[in-house]
Design a protein that fits this description.
Length: about 450
């Protein structure tokens, strides 16, 4: 499945970067594969033994077992290591991405190792792969791309600004990701929906800014934030991206729009409320209901895809339902750990309590486009109805449903399921046309 929510998808646990002497026999790939092998085989004590002291304190055996169980609740049972790996270095630390196959999805397990070969960080990310041929709506040679920086200081993010050829100033769109540590293309398997949007809209004369999400670029620092909320995860960077575009002479500062997908769509009204000069919002598959309840709904849907819910699945759903109820009862000062709250800190849930995206959107004096995929099992027709109920009477609002599109706004047939996200595709041309036409009105 496509991860819909932030920290639930990330499972970030990481020790602080320090200074240590390299271990001469360290083989990062072998260490990472062995560590993931211990997890997949249920050898949690062996996995803990491979961690550094800080990681062992943060992630003892019982918590590691619970973490792996939560991961399989989302993705299905672990089936295999694919054998694919890639590595990089960061401040003297080795990072290895180990490709893992689960029943419902492939992911990359990111293992961070200190200079002595001890595991110092663990992350679970959507699998990264290369896309195939370009969609027909991309007109090669009609735009150029520039590498840019969004924000400044400790949270600066790398991004790409796609600018149409010709004389500006151009209208522009800032793309805001769904949950999890997304890259600027919102890559999942072989698919890159944000790249499709950027290149498709730029081919129609609209500049697009996309950037790597803070939970991807600054994973380690994000893990140290005591009271994390969507402000730090999403909102601040989107506002900074809009501000950066206003300083670019090729961009019309009065025609800068925010396009939010999934969690980004849910938070788009909050972003617009923080910057009254944003021209309008494009909401793609924006959730409207309490996220803890939507998570239970999604997991129930996935468990029932084979027309049966076995005892193990029932137990997992019962646990999620219990945690959802606990989240409903959270109050300031609550002491529950993230492990008791669907893997998300209490501060995150408390920040979203009382947030009603459609109601906030109804107060904004900006035009809004709401798009929905008829085959989306993650953000459903119930969410679309909530947007319609709140916004239909306000004017300057357009709704469009695409019956055969899924959560990624890619075409499919039959009952929607997460395995189709692993099949190479592209954002449907009618979505590009709808957005471009709406901005051009």
């Amino acid at each position: 499945m496509r991860f819909l929510f932030p920290i639930l998808a990330t499972f970030v646990f990481c020790s602080a970067i320090g200074c240590a002497q390299p271990h001469p026999d360290s083989n990062p790939v072998a260490i990472a594969q062995q560590f993931v092998g211990h997890l997949s085989a249920g050898r949690y004590a062996d996995a803990v033994a491979m961690m550094d002291a800080t990681m062992q304190s943060a992630m003892p055996e019982a918590k590691l077992k619970e973490l792996w169980g939560q991961l399989q609740q989302q993705l299905g049972q672990f089936t295999a290591l694919t054998g694919e790996t890639r590595t990089e270095k960061l401040q003297g630390y080795d990072i290895c991405y180990v490709a893992c196959k689960f029943t419902n999805q492939h992911i990359d397990t990111k293992v961070v190792m200190d200079p002595q070969g001890k595991v110092a960080g663990l992350f679970f990310l959507p699998a990264k792969s290369q896309s195939g041929a370009l969609p027909d709506y991309v007109i090669q040679g009609s735009f150029t791309e520039q590498e840019v920086k969004v924000g400044s200081g400790q949270w600066e993010l790398p991004g790409t600004l796609t600018i149409p050829n010709g004389k500006g100033p151009f209208p522009a769109v800032v793309l805001v990701h769904g949950s999890g540590p997304n890259d600027r293309d919102e890559t999942i398997g072989p698919n890159k929906p944000f790249r499709d949007l950027a290149w498709g809209l730029a081919s129609q004369g609209i500049a697009v800014l996309r950037y790597d999400k803070r939970t991807l670029t600054h994973q380690m620092k994000m893990a140290t934030i005591a009271n994390l909320t969507v402000k730090e995860e999403v909102v601040d960077d989107a506002v900074a991206a809009v501000a950066m575009l206003r300083t670019n002479g090729a961009i019309d500062p009065k025609r800068i729009y925010v396009l939010g997908h999934s969690l980004g769509g849910m938070l788009a009204p909050k972003i617009a409320a923080a910057d009254p000069k944003i021209a309008g919002l494009v909401i793609l598959a924006g959730a409207t209901r309490p996220l803890n309840h939507v998570i239970v709904e999604q997991m129930t849907y996935l468990a029932g895809l084979d027309d049966t819910i076995d005892a193990k699945e029932q137990a997992q759903l019962a646990m999620l339902t219990k945690q959802a109820a606990t989240i409903d009862q959270l109050q300031p000062g609550s002491t529950q750990s993230p492990a008791e709250l669907m893997g998300v800190p209490a501060s995150y849930w408390l920040d979203l309590k009382g947030y009603n995206a459609p109601v906030l959107a109804s107060t904004l004096l900006r035009k809004i486009l709401v798009l929905h995929g008829g085959r989306d099992y993650q953000v459903t027709k119930d969410d679309l109805v909530n947007w319609q109920d709140a916004l239909a009477a306000r004017g300057h609002t357009t709704f469009k449903t695409f019956p055969n599109l899924n959560h990624l706004f890619m075409a499919g047939t039959g009952i929607s399921n997460p395995t189709e996200y692993e099949v190479a595709g592209h954002v449907a041309p009618e979505v590009i046309a709808e957005i471009a036409g709406w901005i051009g009105k």
